[in-house]
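Protein in question kept in full:
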Amino acid sequence: MEPQWHQALQAEFEKPYFTQLRDFLTTEHKSQTIYPKMKDVYSWSNYTPLDKVRVVILGQDPYHNVGQAHGLSFSVLPPTKPPGSLKNIYKQLAQDFPTFVPPKTSGDLSLVAKQGVLWLNACLTVRAHKANSHSRKGWEQFTAQAIRAVLDYYKDRGVVFMAWGLPAQKAYAKLGIDENKHLVLKSAHPSPLSAHRGFLGNGHFKAANDWLRERYGDEGTIDWMVLCK
């Protein structure tokens, strides 16, 4: 874990819930295939240090098929092609920025993670081929604390929170995010099952950059175009 994040979250590692979570994961690894690889569970922290966060995008749990999850929500590494949800994220980027060309073969979102987009899942691990298999084991409490760390660090200038789908919206609501300080953008989830019910056309990426520009200047915005270069 990246040092700033480790300092912000170190108290969590000693709490009973995290000890139970660690024991659960140890048992799981003995008999099951778990995604992402252990070295990638906290990769979100290394790509986006706490002092670099500008946008938080909260997913549910990692992709659960072979060659997909690598620790960033919605992101996949080559040669894996973009899954359906990511294809819809690209479609919305193209709507918000007409010169954006959706990548057909690349699903790696790390280039914008390095700019300050925190691609965080509520649950950081999953059993292969079994969605939500590690939910309610303790990860949600841990990642909620990670978001609290963001809220505390940026209590003066604020950041953007994208809430795609009801689970993300409920998770943010529990944290009591002050919308006078932060921008919370809500819509349907980008999943192919729901994207047509309000994700596509939500304008979130342009709205985020407009808001960030007002508070941080041009240097505080996200260059989404790097994803199609």
Q: What stands out?
A: Helices lie at 3-9, 16-31, 43-47, 84-96, 110-113, 139-153, 166-175, 204-216. The CA atoms of residues 12 and 18 lie 7 Å apart. The chain has one domain: 3-228. DSSP finds eight helices and six strands in the chain.
